From TrEMBL:
This is PEP-CTERM sorting domain-containing protein. Residues 1-25 form the signal peptide. It comes from Methylomonas rivi. It comes from the Bacteria. Keywords: Signal.
Length: 258
């Protein structure tokens, strides 16, 4: 029995799609200059000493504390102090931020770079990405989390961490190549902030994490980040087109057999 080339092509695409969705990646941690209080300003310094997963191909000036690669659009990863310790970090290693690192003013837009953490994310395919930043209550944290997601990684040489920044504007802290997408925060001490970013293309993203000070009150503390990619729904018109294509292939085969 002969099979048409279009049908073999469709089968191959389906196989590649399935493989992509089940690929495995991981999280790497930069243990250079870590500070358990989140206020030292040296976390994720250079030269980077990455442990855990594969190191990123990152050459930016902005300090990068961790790197999470999500392979496929059904991948999930968790970033935490405990995971870093399990991967070989110091027994006291901690991912921690300052109480006003993400927001220190009434409008909720002014961050403090020296107390913030910066994570690198890489998506291997078009995805919806849900990010949840939470106080690491297992380690006694009572922080009030806030975060901003930017498309791109720093590509410049002028980033300065110990400075104020606007958490809703492009290229904060003198970075280059960062485009603001959106942000989320909570006002609950020891709580969590979550947001789903839809239709993110494959590529690099940077997450700014810090404490969300409300009415001048905030808590420094340790945090965790949960990353969950999900497929972008395929429009119904695409499935109709695929069905029509298969129908045309069958008609063509029928004509050749007459």
């Amino acid at each position: 029995m002969k099979h048409s080339r279009p049908l073999r092509g469709i089968a191959l695409m389906a196989a590649l799609f399935a493989f992509n969705n089940h690929a495995q990646a991981g999280v790497a941690y930069n243990v250079t200059g870590w500070d358990a209080t989140g206020t030292g300003g040296a976390d994720g310094g250079a030269p980077a000493n990455w442990i855990g997963g594969s190191a990123p191909g990152y050459a930016g000036k902005l300090n990068a504390m961790w790197f999470a690669e999500l392979a496929g659009n059904t991948a999930t990863e968790t970033v935490s102090s405990s995971a870093a310790r399990t991967a070989g970090a110091d027994a006291n290693y901690a991912l921690a931020v300052g109480p006003r690192a993400w927001s220190a003013n009434a409008s909720g837009t002014l961050g403090k770079g020296h107390g913030s953490d910066f994570g690198l994310i890489q998506l291997t395919g078009l995805s919806n990405l849900t990010i949840t930043v939470a106080a690491d209550t297992a380690l006694g944290s009572a922080m009030t989390p806030g975060f901003s997601l930017f498309q791109g990684w720093d590509t410049g040489t002028t980033a300065v961490r110990v400075a104020d920044y606007q958490n809703n504007q492009d290229n904060p802290l003198g970075t280059q190549g960062l485009s603001f997408i959106d942000s989320a925060a909570t006002t609950i001490a020891g709580g969590s902030a979550s947001f789903t970013f839809n239709n993110l293309s494959a590529g690099n993203y940077t997450l700014f994490v810090g404490g969300n000070s409300t009415a001048g009150i905030g808590f420094e503390g340790k945090y965790t980040v949960s990353l969950a990619a999900s497929p972008v729904p395929v429009p119904g018109a695409v499935w109709l087109f695929g069905s029509a294509l298969i129908g045309l292939v069958k008609i063509g085969r029928g004509k050749r057999n007459i």
